[in-house]
Design goal:
By secondary structure, this protein is α/β, with parallel strands linked by helices. Helices cover 38% and strands 15% of the residues. The strands form two sheets. A seven-stranded parallel beta sheet has the order 3-2-1-4-5-6-7, with helices on both faces. A six-stranded parallel beta sheet has the order 10-9-8-11-12-13, sandwiched between helices.
Length: 389
């Protein structure tokens, strides 16, 4: 079978949440024997080395330039979609069994003359209307707040338009999947968690007292989460001998001067590190103090896979399926957040038990290839179920 995958960002290297999800799906489909063509409509041009590596999994790669004109803000559809309007006229072979849209941003591909509407499958990374509304709450910049609110309203309209064109959905969030299914039970929809590489789970000796946060440092909701922790929890944690707070992520060369208003005693910042492996390996546990957001926070899943038990706010773990106090610790007030960190720091056996329980949950429920194989079989009567190893 032949599938066209359409992305708003080059999926490799898989160095942040959305790329991890998309790249894992490309590998799964390739291993299932699909012929894959890839279209990418993003800002940055991938390196020749990255293009060559991805070519080992896909048959053809087409790069579609994204426009960056201010007039895109005046369009009836969101700027994130209108800036990718070039997808309508891309030179494509056609005759695809399915077209997988990696998110709402690449909606214009549905208006291409060689794309059959009944072939479309939408990967729902976020409820984008809710996500942009959350970004508006997180940012302090008034112009950004106005932009996010405008995009949120436009995404609400776009989602209604897409409902009329697409009847096959793959949800990354269990919460958003259940909500959608209750509203539209006739659609072919599936909760498809982010891919986890089976067998490759990190371990933890629980010797340090390093608390880790990893996330895109240019995103306002991640900045808000870090600021909440530094203002409310970090001062309480400084009483703990040996405690350190590690912040790491891609800043996209944006200033991190906003950190300077807080007490940065025992705070270590890694701005755009080449690798996160050592940061995970030296950590004791991971915190996800998100205050606003939508969809699944992949940072929570990645931390567990890399060997760190997680303490999160309710928002930071929603949509994952992880069970509070069994797979993950959840706290929404600073005092409770501090108490749960302290409990795990003081009891390495409890931290180890939580990590093992959460990793076992991912092994059982996050087998991406098996779930994807079953979904394809359910929508394609002639598709032979593949043996998934």
């Amino acid at each position: 079978m032949k599938i066209l995958i359409v992305c708003s960002d080059f999926p490799y290297p898989a160095n942040h949440g959305a790329r991890v999800d998309t790249w894992g799906r490309i590998k799964a489909l390739s291993e299932l024997g699909w012929t894959i063509e890839l279209v990418v409509c993003g800002k940055e041009k991938p390196s020749d080395a990255d293009m060559k590596y991805v070519s080992g999994y896909v048959g053809d790669i087409k790069l579609c330039p994204r426009s960056s004109s201010l007039k895109d803000m005046l369009h009836a559809i969101p700027m994130q979609a209108s800036s990718r309007i070039g997808l309508r006229n891309l030179d494509l072979e056609g005759d695809y069994d399915y077209v997988l849209l990696e998110g709402d941003y690449v909606y214009p591909i549905l208006e291409h003359p060689k794309i059959r509407p009944d072939s479309a499958i939408l990967r729902v990374h976020n409820d984008e209307a809710a996500y942009f509304k959350a970004l508006a709450r997180s940012t302090r910049n008034l112009l950004h707040k106005l932009y996010y609110r405008m995009e949120s309203r436009k995404f609400e309209r776009l989602q209604k338009m897409m409902r009329n064109k697409i009847d096959k959905y793959l949800f990354i969030s269990s919460k958003e999947f259940e909500s959608f299914r209750s509203k539209d039970p006739s659609a072919k929809s599936l909760f498809l968690p982010p891919p986890v590489t089976m067998g490759k789970f990190g371990s933890n000796a629980f010797r340090s007292k390093r608390i880790v946060f990893i996330g895109s440092l240019f995103m306002p909701n991640n900045r808000e989460a870090i600021e909440w922790y530094l203002a409310n929890v970090h001062p309480l944690m400084l009483r703990e001998p040996g405690y350190e707070f590690v912040v790491a992520g891609n800043s996209k060369r944006m200033s991190l001067s906003w950190l300077e208003q807080y007490d940065l005693t025992n705070v270590i910042v890694h701005d755009t590190p080449e690798s996160l492996d050592e940061i995970y390996e030296e950590g004791y546990l991971f915190v996800n103090p998100m205050q606003n957001g939508a969809g699944v926070k992949l940072k929570t899943i990645e931390a567990i896979q890399h060997g760190l038990p997680v303490i999160s706010t309710s928002i930071g773990c929603e949509g994952t399926g992880l069970v509070e106090d069994e797979h993950i610790a959840v706290a929404d007030s600073p005092e409770e957040f501090h108490r749960k960190i302290k409990r795990l720091l003081d009891n390495p056996m409890a931290a180890k038990a939580m990590l093992e329980s959460s990793q076992q949950y991912l092994r059982k429920h996050y087998n991406h290839k098996e779930a994807l194989n079953g979904f394809i079989a359910s929508i394609s009567p002639t598709y032979p179920m593949k043996q998934v190893m």
